[in-house]
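Suppose you are handed only these lines of text.
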Amino acid sequence: MADTHPTWLTDGFDHIWLPYTQMQDAPLPAPIARTQGCKLIMADGRELVDGVASWWTAAHGYNHPHIREAVIRQVETLPHVMLGGLAHEQAYTLASRLAKMAPGDLSRVFFSESGSVSVEIAMKMAVQYWINKGVTGRSRFVSFTGGYHGDTFATMSVCDPEEGMHSLFAGLLADQIITDLPVDAAKQDAFDAVLASRKDEIAAVVMEPLVQGAGGMIMHSPETLAFIRAACDRHGVLLILDEIFTGFGRTGTLFACEQADIVPDIMTLSKALTGGTLPLAATLARTHVFDAFLSDSAETALMHGPTYMGNAMGCAAANAALDLIERDPPGPHVARIEQQLRAELEAARALDGVVDVRVKGAIGVIELEPHADHDWMKAEFISRGVWIRPFNNIVYTTPPLVISAGDLSQITAAMVDVVSAWGTRKRKES
Ligand SMILES: Cc1ncc(COP(=O)(O)O)c(C=O)c1O
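From them, the structure of the protein bound to pyridoxal-5'-phosphate can be written out as follows.
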């Protein structure tokens, strides 16, 4: 097997530093030569049905001709110009379109290049909102156990304490208020009490609506989300919804917050924004948030400006991805995927070592007892012609939203089969 690996992989492996990886014993990753539709094509020609959509970005499948042509046109005419003092059509058009598409009056769009940075910007906006209003001391955030908002220092501080490595970086991370999602009456009372007693130090609540993705695909109801919005309103606290994972259809509606019929004060978007082609993110603010930055003084302006913000190729890709969403809204596709995931993953519930099976929109999850067999599982999936990347205790799929029923069945069959083989292996070992 090793001698079939391309030299770019074996040579480069001595130099690359991989994400979330103990490099001492890291296996070689699967070399991908091409992508097409919902498939990853390996360097040796094997095809994998993609069950992950490249960390949830490739909503329309890979190499979509409409997005590809938009990016090619853009690179030939204007790949990038700075947004400080210069304007280009793609960024301005995209801002108008996102403002129109987003719920309520989320009508101001600040661009950046990654999800983490868009959340940093949202947090900075929230803190400065209070400063600009002449209110002092409101710089803390409330977030939830199981949450994930990025890997930069401010975003780590609002992640789940364990996943966000709070003890490793103790003293470096801002001290936030991290509590349980108010999913039952006791937790609702506790959450309400936190806002009531500490609102004078809280800038905003920050959370992923309906599904906490990287924290383990943990799902909560629209009612819980609506409760949080109402509590924020009651206590005069801003609400930041991080729709980086859930945005653009993943949970069944264009934005997850629509299911609770609420509008956050600030919302972050990335991932499927460019259909998995180029890095781009956006932080959207409602009118009352934006208005707090208006004055006769330069001091109340938002002092932020990533070099590549509003990159023209990224914005062209995003405008093309929005065309696709407008022409063929994701809702019916996601409803079909959801139904199929529910039917086909159910078989896993009875298997050894399975703790839970859950589905929301185009997200299908098998939760297992704790284990460390992720690399073994990945290899098993590849041998079944599927790309699935298990993490922590979950085996999950978030396929492209255009996946065919046949390809999705290949994914779900592999998930059930690999989990079954893992259960048998575990039993033999014990
Ligand atoms: C909900 C959420 N917020 C923020 C991020 C961070 O985005 P990025 O990896 O682009 O910095 C992610 C990435 O998985 C995410 O799922």
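What can we learn from it? The chain is about 35% helix and 15% strand. The radius of gyration is 22 Å.
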